[in-house]
């Protein structure tokens, strides 16, 4: 027996393929079914990712309302709260297309309180 990706076990001699469990037959080609108690995750256990954006090079004078106004003026709707720290902020987008549009529209092109903003995908500390 060997350990597969994610700590699960794969039976030896099957080339790492998992055995079908009852209920898996006929689940169709990759369609995701909702399972009670798993929120937005399906059978695969994958979460639908929010697209968190990092906004950097902000003046200490910038407020969350300034950022909401800036995004609103450019018709870039925010999905939730603006998490503002000193010199940077984070915003969420539920849709990758809107996140890409925000990055392309704002990054290096918009000045706010005398500083040109940087906008990019947020990267967790583990991956930096």
From TrEMBL:
Bias type Basic and acidic residues, positions: 11-35
According to UniProt, the name of this protein is: RRM domain-containing protein
| Domain RRM stretches | 51-124
Protein keywords: RNA-binding
Q: Which Pfam families match?
A: RRM_1
Q: Which domain of life is it from?
A: Eukaryota
Q: Does the keyword field hold S-adenosyl-L-methionine?
A: no
Please give the residue ranges the record annotates as the region Disordered: 1-46
Query: GO: which molecular function terms?
Result: mRNA 5'-UTR binding
For bias kind Gly residues, which ranges apply? 1-10
Q: Tell me the CDD domains matching this sequence.
A: RRM1_IGF2BP2 (cd12626)
InterPro entries named in the record: IGF2BP2_RRM1, Nucleotide-bd_a/b_plait_sf, RBD_domain_sf, RRM_dom
Q: Which SUPFAM superfamilies does the record cross-reference, listed alphabetically?
A: RNA-binding domain, RBD
Instruction: List GO BP terms, alphabetically.
Output: post-transcriptional regulation of gene expression
